[in-house]
Write a sequence for this structure.
């Protein structure tokens, strides 16, 4: 039974890597044109419209979403398009301001929506990065405080870490995680009694196909001092693998379609404070039915999911501050 004074309904959150690139691929497509290749298109307008429709459904169907954190919304136009369609359900938006620097031209890709006002909002760009593609972005950590109910504030942090499995990629991720830990500790000092939630695309493989934790994932919950909400709800990894990336629905022709690995890359962590209780955490696949027809000038096959990642939802009971 939930604590008698917990909020009702629970606090519901969604984190989702959207893979909305839009015109941020101008440089790549200019190169492809010079080499006689077709431009890359991802059916972004169609997928963005379908995503907005689905977010409205999830925000109006019990248990309704309170908070949505999207990453890889690289083109600001698509952030605007989505918000314009969902602001009746989620009237509050936070999109971190782009820090103009040489080579950084697509921002953080993060955008946060909420049905509750933001009492606090801030963003810190990560200093560590690896590779040309990553250097074009400003990956970082977006932090907001919202109150699903009076006297029940929650600090929610959304992130997107370095991609890739190379040594340079892993080194950059370690640097980003160290910075995340420093920010999280600072937030704990600033908001000592407020429950904390961190989620997003960590680009760290959780377990192999047999449910065994990877060396990169194993120290992660302890290093953050937080609980992996999916594993709180589904402790047996061999029975509930929780994959959030399925290479069979990749949208990008640059990716190797022969790689059919399934990977758990997206997480929602919450701190162990007694003021927050995990009551649910599951995958939101965002299937497209009927599929979008990716013809030869697009992806060359049917698109049956809204992204190359699945979304991750969690529900919490939050106690009022003492």
């Amino acid at each position: 039974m939930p604590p008698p004074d917990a909020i009702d309904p629970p606090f519901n959150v969604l984190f989702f890597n959207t893979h909305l690139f839009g015109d941020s691929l101008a440089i790549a497509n200019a190169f492809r044109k010079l080499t006689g290749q077709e431009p890359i298109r991802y059916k972004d307008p169609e997928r963005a419209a379908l995503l907005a429709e689905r977010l409205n459904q999830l925000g109006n169907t019990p248990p309704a979403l309170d908070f949505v954190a999207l990453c890889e919304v690289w083109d600001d136009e698509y952030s605007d398009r989505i918000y314009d369609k969902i602001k009746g359900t989620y009237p509050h938006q936070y999109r971190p301001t782009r820090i103009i620097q040489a080579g950084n031209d697509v921002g953080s890709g993060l955008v946060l929506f909420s049905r509750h006002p933001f009492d606090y909002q801030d963003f810190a760009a990560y200093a560590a990065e690896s590779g040309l593609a990553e250097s074009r972005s400003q990956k970082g950590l977006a932090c907001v405080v919202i109150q699903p109910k009076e006297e029940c504030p929650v600090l929610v942090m959304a992130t997107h870490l370095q991609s890739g499995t190379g040594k340079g990629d892993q080194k950059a991720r370690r640097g980003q995680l160290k910075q995340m830990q420093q920010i999280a500790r600072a937030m704990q000092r600033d908001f000592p009694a407020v429950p904390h939630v961190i989620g997003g695309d960590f680009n760290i493989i959780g377990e192999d196909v047999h449910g065994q934790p990877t060396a990169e994932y194993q120290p992660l919950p302890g290093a953050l001092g937080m609980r992996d909400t999916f594993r709180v709800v589904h402790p047996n990894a061999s029975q509930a693998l929780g994959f959030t990336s399925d290479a069979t629905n990749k949208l990008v022709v640059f990716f190797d379609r022969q790689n059919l690995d399934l990977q758990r890359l997206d997480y929602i962590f919450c701190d162990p404070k007694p003021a927050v209780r995990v009551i649910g955490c599951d995958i939101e696949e965002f299937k497209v039915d009927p599929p979008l027809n990716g013809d030869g000038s697009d992806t060359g096959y049917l698109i049956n999911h809204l992204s190359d990642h699945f979304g991750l939802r969690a529900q919490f009971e939050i106690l009022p501050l003492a």
The first helix runs from residue 26 to 34.
